[in-house]
Design goal:
The chain has a domain of 66 residues. Strands 1-2 form a two-stranded antiparallel ribbon. It has 116 residues and is low in regular secondary structure. It contains one helix and two strands, in the order H-E-E.
Length: 116
């Protein structure tokens, strides 16, 4: 029986809670775009990364919409001002799942934190 990747387990566990689709790697691909915006259209890669193709609130020929190829012409979506949006940064915390257990690394010299 194949073992699911951590990103698949993470996605499946949070999706089952009806809280949207969880991204294992939510940060944008800096070589494609700098931040995620309302109106972004794209796809999810298998490892849990969102790849932005274009943004429907911008004109179809906007320079940032051409990074992965120009979309077909469309009328931009005008949703008015977004006054209810916030920017939030999350602290590093422990995540729990009823199907995943923690195991200590005591005595394992190869298992180290990034700071070590």
């Amino acid at each position: 029986m194949p073992i699911d990747s951590p990103s698949t387990v993470y996605r499946d566990q949070l999706t089952a809670l009806s809280q949207g689709l969880a991204l294992w790697n939510p940060g944008p691909q800096k070589k494609i775009y700098n931040n995620v915006s309302i109106g972004d259209v794209g796809y999810l890669r298998e490892e849990g990364t969102f790849i932005r193709m274009f943004n429907v609130t911008l004109p179809w020929d906007h320079p940032s919409n051409g990074t992965l190829g120009k979309p077909e012409p469309y009328d931009p979506l005008d949703c008015g001002p977004f006054t209810n949006t916030i920017e939030a940064h999350f602290e590093k915390v422990d995540h729990y799942s009823r199907f995943v257990a923690a195991e200590t690394n005591a005595g394992n010299s190869q298992a180290k934190t990034p700071e070590e």
